[in-house]
Structure formats: structure tokens, C-alpha cells
Amino acid sequence: MGTEGYRDLRVWQRAKDLAVTIYKLTSSGPLARDFGLRDQIQRSAVSIPSNIAEGDERDTNKDSVRFLYIAKGSLAELRTQLEIARDIGALDPEQFTQLEVTCADIGRMLGSLIKARSKP
Fold first, then answer.
1. Is the pTM above the cut of 0.70?
2. 89 Rama sector, left if φ>0, alpha if ψ -120 to 50, beta otherwise
3. Could you tell me if residue 44 is inside a domain?
4. For residue 24, which of 4, 16, 60, 99 sits 20 to 30 Å off, Cα-Cα?
5. 10-residue averages of pLDDT along the chain (120 residues)
6. What is the dihedral of CA 32, 37, 41, 42, to 10 degrees?
């Protein structure tokens, strides 16, 4: 909905960078061998910036907010999957902490954008 499009949204940029980080992280090590969890993590990570972009391209605040909520749900999925990966030893606790901080920031940004676009 912005004049320059979704690529100018800081939340989309952060979410896309997170998805790239997730893909790099899951391309080797224990997560690379756990196909089920790896695929779930990758899908939820990609879903976040994808839904931000799709909502922004709908050109209405109502549609945008709906897709932002979907992105927020995908973020919650990713956070859960990362926590599981940490708990089973497939993700280093330090990596988890860094990813969790990023996820929390993106969540706050999504919440702020939802609030801003929900105003009449």
C-alpha cells in the first residue's frame, strides 16, 4: 500500500532477511538432516514476508491487515519450531537466542503495522 511498495516496508525487509538466514541455517548441520522439521521451519519463515507482500499489494487496509495477521501467525509457527529445534539439540542455544530476538522484533513491527492500518 505504500508509494514504493512492500519492499520499502522495514518489516518486510527484516522478515525476508530472516527467511534467508533460516534457509542458510537449515542447509547444513542437524536441521539439514531432519527433513520434516527443516521443511516446516523453511515454510513458516518464507510465509512471513510473502504474506506481508501479498497483503500490501491488495491495496486496501482491510486486506492488508488480514494478511499481516496471517504473517503474524506464521511467525508464531516459526518461533515454536525453532524452540522445538533447540530443545531436541538441532539448534544451538545461541543461534536460537539470536533468532528469537529477531522474531520478537518482527512481531512488534507487525503489531505496529496492524494497528496503524486498522485505524479508520
1. yes
2. left
3. yes
4. 4
5. 79 98 95 95 98 94 97 98 97 97 98 94
6. 50
The total number of residues shown for the chain amounts to: 120
Q: How many CA atoms lie within 13 A of 111 on its CB side?
A: 8
Burial 34-43 (b: 16+ CB within 10 A, else e): beebbebbbe
Residue 27 DSSP label: T
Count of domains observed in the chain: 1
Question: Which of 101, 82, 109, 117 minimizes the C-alpha distance to 13?
Answer: 109
pLDDT of residue 59: 83
Q: Is residue 86 part of a domain?
A: yes
